[in-house]
Amino acid sequence: MPAEEPQAVEATDEGSYWGNVSVDANRSAVTQPRVLELRPNCERPPGLVVHIQVLALQNNDPKTNEGINTTWQFASPSNRELTGPYSNFVRTIQSGFKPLLNATGVRYGPLDRDGDTASQPVTVVNGNGTTTSYRWTVEKQTEAPYEGCWMTAGVAPA
After folding, report:
1. SS3 at position 132
2. pLDDT one-digit tens code per residue, 48-61
3. In 18-145, which residue ranges form alpha helices assigned H by DSSP?
4. Is residue 7 domain-resident?
5. CA-CA distances (angstroms) from residue 54 to 74, 106, 115, 123, 135?
6. How far is residue 91's CA from residue 41's CA, in Å, rounded to a whole number?
7. 5 belongs to a structural domain
8. pLDDT digits over 106-150, tens only?
9. Organism's domain of life (predicted)?
């Protein structure tokens, strides 16, 4: 199991706010740079895993790509295998998922969970009010070192 990392927010049960986020959830001072330090652990429910990554991308520093790196840390091993090395992942986010970077607002749809797979619609708003929607899919991992952890299997335009 991966080592514990500091948490920006407390992980709670799946029926709580983090398990099924369906309200406007914009950047908060509590999560802003600390979310960039988070890494996978097996105590976080799927909705929180999605939220951490979206916040990390909202707070991405274009010079260091810390937000993209945090998102990469939460990518499942199979996702990383498909994406290729980290440099490819950075290019993919910067080109195909640019609206997620430094979005000014976010709306999370209801979390849909089916066993060890969960997906959640995420709509981001940029500075001029344009919205872009995605479907975030996370899966509970079955192999070490992430066995039991929710990690991102994929993100697709919705």
Report:
1. strand
2. 999 999 999 999 99
3. 32-35, 46-58, 66-73, 77-83, 86-96
4. no
5. 11, 8, 23, 10, 12
6. 26
7. no
8. 999 999 999 999 999 999 999 889 999 999 999 999 999 999 999
9. Archaea
d(CA 119, CA 86): 23
pLDDT at 38: 86
Domain count, the chain: 1
Alpha-carbon span 50 to 74, nearest angstrom: 9
90 domain residue, yes or no: yes
Q: Where are the alpha helices (DSSP H) in 62-141?
A: 66-73, 77-83, 86-96
pLDDT band at 7 (very low <50, low <70, confident <90, very high): very low
Q: What is the CATH number of the domain that holds 78?
A: 3.10.450.50
Q: What whole-number distance in Å separates Cα of residue 135 and Cα of residue 129?
A: 20
Question: Is residue 27 domain-resident?
Answer: no
Q: State which residues form the domain around 108.
A: 32-157
Q: Which two tokens stand for residue 95?
A: 């080109």
Q: Is the dihedral of CA 71, 72, 73, 77 positive or negative?
A: positive
